[in-house]
Amino acid sequence: MPAYSGMTMGMTMSDGVIALPPPPTQSSLRAVADTPTPNPPAITAGDPPDSEPAARWADIVTGRFGLYTLVINLGIFMWAINNLVVAGVMPTVVADIGGMRLYSWTFALFSMGSVIGAAAGGPLRDIFGARFAYAGAGTVFCIGLAGAALAPNMEALVGMRLIQGLGGGAVSSLGYSLMATLYPERLRGRILAFTSTAWGVATTIGPGFGGIFAEYGLWRGAFWGMMPLALLFIVIALRFIPRSTQSRSAASFPFGRLVVLGGAVVTLSAASQTDAIWLRVLLVFVSIALTVIVFKLDGRAERPMFPRLALRIGSETGALYWIMGLNSATVVVYATFQTLQLQVLHDVPPIVAAYLFMLSSLCWSTTAVIVATWRGHMETAGIVLGSVTLVIGTAGLAYFVVPGPVYLIAIFIAISGAGIGFMTNLQIQRAIRSVPDGEKSISGSSVQGIRTMGVAFGAAAAGLVAVAAGLKSETPGAEAVAGAMRWVYGFGAAIAGVTLILVLGLILATRKKPA
Hints:
Blueprint: E1 12-14, E2 17-19, H1 26-33, H2 63-97, H3 103-128, H4 130-149, H5 154-182, H6 185-215, H7 219-240, H8 255-270, H9 277-300, H10 316-336, H11 338-346, H12 350-370, H13 377-400, H14 406-434, H15 440-468, H16 478-512
Antiparallel strand pairs: 1-2
């Protein structure tokens, strides 16, 4: 994504030393928020840590940082609770309006929209400024919620999920870009961990919220119920996010690259909708080709959406981006059909299935806080530990998904989530440090973009594997679900294994690199 603007206002840098002003008053905050700011360089991972004051958790919840933390975490919470609520109500949606064949499309097209929205976040910020881009993304998300609540059939619901993805993806991407530009390096690990707690809160509330509506067949109410939260986000984003000057015109918006990127995800999703093996294989290769084209075009663009080395797996940046994308794909592969298999194979009530679904995110949030301050060798250890833990968790799920018992499935769901939490934020920080100085300003949102791409391709691949394994009926029986889930969860474990190999290769390669 293009360069971001809007570094924390009132912060000055002299000889690498960051000076923070005294705590602002209410009136000064209002005046500052309404004043356009130039585009100073973002504080990056390359800033000298020994020149900064010691970081405290209180720093990100007080003063102007506290206001930014409130807005960013509400956006993350809105994004997280939407995913959890929809996953919990989807079996009820299918029972009401049908469309089992399009079940995975509700996740795949949401992910496609998320990819486009995430990649568009930087350009939108440059065109409209941080404040209006952020609030505008929330408005698009609201439109998607209302449309889904009114959807008369699965086709309409899938379309509205695409709209939700566009808005939600931009909200998420812009949130990470704000973390990279509004917070100094000394606070970045803590704000990343703090956003993980937003997921923890969402996992506590979301499954029960969606499960209650699902229990009584009132799935439309789940979408209406999220509307007040989205409206609140729009209001406080307009109130507290500082304006930044527009640094590009609408004519420079990367429409072509975004269309090709969306086409790559749609093509992969379409592969699950055909019974012809040759056509499935063809569509998969077309999708891969389109993705490569996007990155080739982006690498030559004057204002790229991703770092130049994002796909070069032999570089540290490329390896980290591949690892983050594959980790995201692993998560969505085992999460897409989680509530379905619990209800169909193990007779778990919808609300209980929803809370079992939340275990992964809850453990993710907990371990993310634990590793928030890990640096140096501890950072490396956390990434390796997370990869190993994820392999153990996904392998256990693949083995016990059909025979059970449910408590073992729950344990391995928790282990998988803990593995992701150990390494995700550490990978983000390392990825920011790995890019050249001229690209550090785009790394904040681009890491979210690559993770969102992993989610999109993972959801589409999960649907492809499920259909190929026999999950084609509108109302599949336990035998069909069991056969498909063995393949889907085995596929997820295989991705986790490949990711571990990449992590170990990255660690060995960086250790051999001369200092």
